[in-house]
Design brief:
By secondary structure, this protein is α+β, with helices and mostly antiparallel strands. The chain is built from seven helices and eight strands; from the N terminus they run ββββαββββαααααα.
Length: 214
């Protein structure tokens, strides 16, 4: 009598077949049931797929984290033996569908505490102040050239640093001239060229008119 392998659960008045069951039936019943959906002829299954029958051991699938994964479906399919292993035994392999774990949702409160997206845009760029001019690192000519373009406050700082350091005569003897020129530049920056000219004519005494005998 032909045998069929059940693919879908089939039940009747005097029988109940589960998926994977192999049963012997009459030729008429085999022709009726083996339609490729409800069952197939067991002798014709060959390398086809068959669902796991009740009682067969389902493989355990372990994930990378060592946790066992939930098996949603598992089927066994007959296959050819590996090269060099044709020892007359029947070979089969598993095809298993598992449910992958869903990663936990991020903690929104923690993300909010870390950094707001707009925080970076709202921050003002950091201003890097240039290093202060050090007269000890420059020659006389370079120091005087620098002093020729600064105000009185910066000129005093550089001249005091020079006096406390190398105290070169070529710079120290021009101290008053350098400070006077720096005051003129400060006056020009605050009140324009006309004020600077008046300041220079007054000998550096702002607000004091110049008096001359003609």
């Amino acid at each position: 009598m032909p045998r069929i392998r059940v693919l879908e659960a089939i039940a009747g008045a005097d029988f109940s077949w589960a998926p994977g069951d192999v049963v012997e039936v009459s030729e008429e019943a085999a022709a009726a049931w083996a339609d490729g959906h409800r069952a197939v002829l067991a002798d014709d299954v060959g390398g086809g797929r068959a669902q796991v029958a009740d009682g067969e051991r389902i493989p355990r699938i372990i994930g990378e984290d060592g946790q066992e994964l939930e098996v949603l479906d598992a089927v066994v399919e007959a296959c050819d033996p590996p090269d060099g292993e044709d020892d007359g035994l029947s070979w089969s392999r598993w095809s298993v569908t598992v449910r992958l774990p869903v990663p936990p949702a991020p903690d929104l409160a923690e993300l909010a505490d870390s950094a707001e997206p707009g925080d970076v845009d709202d921050q003002e760029p950091e201003v890097v102040e240039p290093p202060l001019f050090d007269p000890s690192e420059h020659s006389n000519r370079e120091v005087l050239a620098y002093l020729d373009g600064v105000g009185e406050q910066e000129a005093l700082r550089v001249l005091d640093a020079e006096a406390a350091g190398q105290n070169r005569a070529g710079i120290s003897k021009q101290r008053e001239q350098v400070l006077e020129a720096a005051r003129v530049r400060d006056a020009a920056a605050g009140g324009g060229a006309e004020t600077a000219a008046d300041y220079a004519r007054g000998g550096g005494r702002a607000g004091v008119p110049e008096t001359r005998d003609w």
